[in-house]
Amino acid sequence: MARLPALVEALAEVDLRSHATLNHIARLVRDAGQITSTKRGAGGAKMEYRDAATLLMAACGDINPLGAVAAAKRMQALEPIPADAVRAMQREDLPAHFDWLREPTSFATTLTRLIEHAPQLETWEAAYQAGGAEGVGGGASEAEFSVTRAISRFAQGGFQPGLSKPVRVIFYAPGIAAEIHLGWVWDDLTEADAFHEYYAAPQAAGQVEGPHEPAPDVMFPVEIGVRTLLALHHAVNQKPRTRGPAKNPRKPNT
Which of 10, 60, 96, 223 could form a disulfide with 162 if both were Cys (CB 3.0 to 4.6 A apart)? Predict the structure, then answer.
């Protein structure tokens, strides 16, 4: 398994922010004890999927690097919003290839599993998009037609919006909530081969009735797709670099 620098390099390949910024976030999280690395360089601890998930929550949980540690801590506490009868039935009906999502788990645990199963998600997304493309046309609903029209308009400007990606993880800064979507949101009630979950702090997730504080009108969502999950998956499984022989080895004393 790889070291922390490999996770930073992998994230930098799919993130618009500089390598220096992401490396700074990684150091903050490591120094706060949220990642198991205690040493630098070749002697650092080997990373696991949960470490990759922690780094991702820190990097995407706040728009300010100084808030990364607090955001990651808040996001590790996010729990699924209690499911209604329809949601519970959909979870029971998940296909076999999504068995690892059947049990409701925290956002951090589910994100860890997404990174672990990223190659499978890449294959699933390609097949899902191919099937969706065949269905677009006369049989499409008004909602689907409107969304695909918006996506095509963005494409003319060279931009791919998050709605065009079947695999989506949305972080709400500063670590206050999250969403995970495998499949089109607008087909939530009609698809079996899909997964949609919403996460909030435990006290908010369990508060179904009663007064609510006004939601902020200015929000900062950060969104990733399967490419980021896949990059971190490969980084975790990358063999760590080892120290090679010295260029000028010392000669033994004679």
Answer: 223
